[in-house]
Design a protein that fits this description.
With 388 residues, the protein is α/β, with parallel strands linked by helices. It has helices at 28-47, 66-81, 145-158, 275-288, 305-309, 313-320, 336-341, 349-359, 368-387, and strands spanning 2-7, 51-54, 86-89, 114-117, 123-127, 134-139, 166-172, 174-178, 181-183, 192-193, 203-207, 213-216, 219-221, 238-244, 250-256, 262-264, 268-269, 295-303, 325-332. Helix content is 29%, strand content 24%. The protein is elongated. It binds manganese (II) ion. Manganese (II) ion binds next to loops.
Length: 388
């Protein structure tokens, strides 16, 4: 039996929010991506699979920091010393737009047992020999994915008379037309393929789609090793163990990794609540979820503007401070009576500001929610002062 560990989308170097890890001084979410990958490597070193296949987006960016590179280097050396072959293709996140930029993967090229595939074209990586021979057909992120895919299938068909061993495909792609389902991330430069014309593989290891998914009996996404947005809040994160036997048997097992807790709380629907109830429900939701060390989102729907203005933001901050990140998203009630009462040519300053902020594109590094909050607060203070 041959055992393959299929992992993908580790996005090493990703960082988010403002929380710093006290031990290292690094962004805590960055440290989380390191921890998830290290957990995987620890498991692999203990379990010694015949090969590890990483299906792309090992790094989060084309130019990872020295820290991210040195972390990955250390982990790959551990695998190398344990004698575990590691095959990795470049994904859309780490593939430079200009070839002159060069690939970070070239740094790992000379480590024994490490095979990096990043040259904009299909490559065949062969591991082992005889019955345990693994022919790994690897396509990195490239300019002509359809052409490289055809080339891969052709080469596989040509070599299919060779005896023993397994043919494994590895790609970093979105898939469409698989059982009427489409798997994509809606990213700017993602590659999309169909898979109906990929045949005679013993297994195809996909990367890119962050949710662990069986696409076809022989085609799987391993999913990412951490949650990178609230879209992934309900997904288990981990990697796949694929067991192939010489008689054609195939078993795929998902192994979950321990990751940072991410919670999307039940929204507070303000519609039927009075001001007091709204405030109490928000506070209750926060306290019930015990936000310590978690990434949390709470939506507050249809909150009347005057209630929003009377919230105790300092208190809310105090209640949510122990979270790694606590996001409260307010959606305002559009009170038709209130709007009708206003002269159409001149809406309240608050409403004008809200409309302005909705349309105003702020620099990505600025926290728009905080800007919203501050603007509204300053206006409220100014109003109070001018009333006195
Ligand atoms: Mn990707």
């Amino acid at each position: 039996m041959t055992r393959i560990f299929h992992v993908a989308d580790t996005h090493i170097g990703y960082s988010a929010y403002r929380r710093i890890d006290e031990a290292t001084g690094l962004n805590l979410r960055e440290v989380d991506t390191y921890a998830a990958f290290k957990q995987f490597v620890d498991y692999a070193v203990a379990e010694k699979p015949d090969v590890i296949i990483h299906a792309g987006d090992l790094f989060d960016s084309v130019r990872p920091t020295n820290r991210a590179i040195s972390f990955v280097l250390g982990q790959l050396i551990r695998l190398s010393e344990a004698g575990i072959p590691f095959v990795v293709i470049s994904g859309n996140h780490e593939t430079p737009r200009l070839k002159e930029t060069g690939s970070v993967f070239s740094l790992f090229e000379h480590i024994p047992n490490v095979h990096v595939v990043y040259r904009n074209k299909y490559e065949l990586v062969e591991i082992g020999d005889g019955d345990r021979n693994l022919r790994i057909h690897a396509i990195p992120h490239c300019d002509d994915i359809a052409g490289e895919k055809r080339k891969m299938q052709m080469l596989l068909n040509d070599g299919s008379d060779s005896t023993g061993g397994f043919n494994i495909g590895v790609l970093h792609v979105g898939v469409y037309g698989a059982g009427k389902q489409t798997f994509l991330m809606d990213e700017f430069n993602e590659q999309l393929i169909t898979i109906h014309d990929l045949t005679n593989f013993d297994y195809i290891a996909l990367g890119h789609y962050h949710k662990y998914t069986r696409v076809r009996d022989d085609v799987y996404y391993a999913g990412s090793t951490e949650r990178f947005s609230f879209n992934e809040v309900t997904e288990d994160k981990g990697f796949l163990e694929v067991r192939l036997s010489e008689d054609g048997g195939r078993e795929v097992v998902f192994h979950e990794l321990r990751t940072r807790e991410m919670v999307d709380l039940e929204p507070v629907a303000c519609g039927a609540l009075d001001e007091h109830e709204i405030k109490r429900t928000i506070t209750d939701r926060i306290q019930e979820c015990n936000p310590e060390d978690k990434v949390v989102r709470l939506k507050v729907l249809d909150i009347p503007v005057h209630v929003y203005h009377s919230l105790d933001f300092d208190e809310l901050k105090r209640l949510t401070r122990s979270a790694v990140h606590f996001e409260i998203k307010y959606e305002f009630l559009r009170d038709s009576e209130l709007l009708a009462a206003e002269r159409p040519s001149f809406r309240s300053l608050h409403t004008e500001f809200e409309h302005f902020m909705e349309k105003y594109a702020v620099d990505v590094h600025l926290d728009k929610k905080r800007l919203d909050e501050l603007g509204l607060r300053y206006m409220q203070e100014w109003e109070r002062e001018s009333e006195e």
